[in-house]
Write a structure and sequence with these properties.
The chain has helices at about 5-10, 10-30, 40-45, 50-55, 60-90, 95-110, 115-130, 135-155, 165-185, 200-220. By secondary structure, it is mainly α. It has two domains: about 5-55, Homeodomain-like (Arc Repressor Mutant, subunit A, Orthogonal Bundle), CATH 1.10.10; about 70-220, Tetracycline Repressor, domain 2 (Orthogonal Bundle).
């Protein structure tokens, strides 16, 4: 099947098809996963020709990558901006708790919403169990920049924290955040005292308090 003139000749329509495919793919990949979503499903939802997927993205694999990248880069920049903002606003007086609260809030709040950022969390969950992204994408484009930015801020706030321990502290912090998000997704709507993640603001405060204590303990330890 060839792409119709309506799909490729007018720049406005061209961009419209491109965006509709991204939006449709994001929703369908969340609902059915990569393998459970066909090209026909995508183009039907986006109201375009089958050939449009190849024309705009070079295939389903690259469309999947662009769906991830669209949200991933926004989330990366949001998290790094939260770190930079709190450090620039408070300078040397910034506390460890203030830094952690800014980062934790920027990490959790968008991912538990019903917006595109919330759907990114669902895509990430599927990707963990059904990987289809190139292995270096998440690492190089999101994880390393965010972790590096937080480590640099920690080095200023906790100058006694060794770099090796700082890396472990950052990964422990992120593990708590991912656990909280996944718990809410799996058991969402259950108001149970055994599921503290249901109280999001309470979890944010706990993670900040718990992590700050752990980071200070790590900073006070001598190398073996």
């Amino acid at each position: 099947m060839t792409v119709s003139g309506n799909d490729i000749t007018d720049s406005g329509t061209d961009r419209g098809v491109h965006n509709r495919l991204l939006d449709a793919a994001e929703r369908l990949f969340c609902e059915s996963g990569f393998d459970g979503t066909s090209i026909r499903d995508l183009t039907t939802a986006a109201e375009c020709n089958v050939a449009s997927v190849n024309y705009h993205f070079g295939g389903k694999d690259k469309l999947y990558l662009e769906v991830f990248r669209r949200r991933m880069l926004i989330m990366r920049d949001l998290r790094i901006a939260s770190i930079n903002n709190v450090m620039s606003q408070h300078g040397r007086e910034v506390s460890l708790e203030r830094l952690l609260h800014a980062f934790v809030s920027s990490f959790i709040q968008p991912l538990v919403s019903e917006t595109g950022a919330g759907r990114f969390s669902k895509l990430m969950a599927r990707e963990m169990f059904e990987p289809h992204l190139p292995r270096n994408v998440l690492l190089e484009e999101m994880i390393i920049p965010v972790v590096s930015s937080l480590q640099q801020a920690l080095a200023k706030v906790c100058p006694d924290l060794e770099q090796k321990r700082a890396v472990l502290c950052v990964h422990s912090l992120i593990a708590q955040l991912i656990h909280t998000i996944r718990t809410r997704e799996v058991f969402g709507g259950l108001d149970d005292v055994r599921l503290p993640a249901a109280d999001l603001s309470g979890m944010v405060e706990h993670i900040v308090e718990f992590s700050a204590a752990g980071i200070r303990a790590a900073a006070g330890r001598k190398s073996q």
